[in-house]
Amino acid sequence: MSEPSSGLFKTELKTIGKNYFAMMDDYYLQYPVQRSADGGEDSLLIQCVEYKAPNSMAYGITPTYEQPFNDTNGNGVKDADEEFVKDSKPTEIGFDIDLSKTGVNSTGSIYDTHSSEYTGNDFSTETDFYVELPIPQSVRDANGCVWEGNSMNIFTSAGLALASSLMDDPNRSIAVATQAVVNTMTGRGGNLLEQVAAAGGVTSGDIQNNLKAALAGLAVNQFGANVTPNTVMARTNGQILNSNKELLFNGTKLREFAFQFTFTPRDAGESEQARKIIRKMKKAMSPSMGKAYSESKNQAIFLNSPKLFLLRYLKGGEDHPFLNSFKPCALTEFAVDYTGTGAYATYGDGTPVHMKVSMKFKETNPVYAEDYDKENLSGVGY
What we know:
Blueprint: H1 7-11, H2 18-23, E1 28-30, E2 42-49, E3 61-66, E4 91-97, E5 127-134, E6 145-150, H3 154-168, H4 174-186, H5 190-200, H6 204-221, H7 229-237, E7 246-252, E8 256-263, H8 268-284, H9 290-296, E9 308-315, E10 318-319, E11 329-337, E12 355-363
Parallel strand pairs: 1-5
Antiparallel strand pairs: 2-5, 2-9, 3-4, 6-7, 8-12, 9-10, 11-12
Helix pairs in contact: 5-6, 6-7
C-alpha cells in the first residue's frame, strides 16, 4: 500500500514510522487513494475503536459494609494485621458515591476525540482502523435538549406537600395522612381550605364545591365515562383549576449525523480500497458473538457490542479550525447504493463504476455546557 499523501500522515501517523505503517495494510484506509500533494484538503477522519462499557451499572454508587473486627491497634480502623470477629457477618451501613466513574457529573470521556496531539495510546490495539474520506457535501450539526410543558394545580401542590410530610415524619401513618385529605374534601379540614382560599382570593366554600364536582367526575369515570375534573367544574360552577402551566427542562438529546459519499473508482487500487472500506465499516458496526462462538461454533448466549467511532473534521491533517467536534459515536446505519448512476454498470472485475455510500452516526453521550471549556477544543466546539 502506498504512503498516504494527506496531512494526517504528516502530522500524526509519522509517530509510528513508515515501516510500521507499511505492515498495517488495513490500518489506515483512504478514498480516493491519491490526495493533494500538500495534504490541504478538508476531510472526515473516522477512527474505529473497541467499545468500552461503563464502569458501573450502579452509576458509581457502591454499598459499604461494616463487620466487627478485633481492634488490637485501638485506632478504630481495620488494619492488615487485624482479623474479623469469627462467625460475624457484614452489615450494610451506607453507600459510597463516586460520580466520576460514570460521567454523570463529568464531561470527560474514555475516548479523546478532539485533541490534535495524538499520544502513543492512540495507536494501541484498541484502535481497529482509520478511514479518511473527502469532507461530505452536506456538513451540519444540530444541538438540542428536551423542554416540555408541565402543569401543577393547587391540589397537586397540596398532595406533594402531604407526601413530603410523610417522608419527613416516617412515624406518621398513611391512614392519618389519608384522613387529612378526607377532612379537606368534606370541609372538616377548614384550616387548610381557608388558607388556600385566602391565597387565591376566593372563599373556602368555592374550593369545596369545585373539589366535590371534580371528585364526582372521577367517580363517574369508574363506570366507563370519560369526564375530566375540569369538565365537571366548568359545567357546574363555570370554573376550572389553574394549571399553572410552565415549560420545564426535561432532559438531553443525543445528536445524529448523516453523511453521504460517492465512490467512483478510477483503477484497481481504488476499487480495492473502496471494497475494504465498505467491508470493514459493515463488520465494525455489527455485534459479535464472541470468542466462545469462534471456538465452538455453538449458539452464542451473549452478544458483544459493536465497535464505536471517533469522528474528526480535518483541514490539512489538523483538527478543522471552524467545524464542530464529535462525541464518541455508534454507527447506526450503513447503506450502499451500487447503482449510483441509476443503472447497473461494473468494470471487468465486477466493481461497480459508481457507488453512493450513506452513513448515520449517533453520539453515545449528550453535549454539556462544560464540554466547551475543554482545552484544545477548536472552532465552534460541539
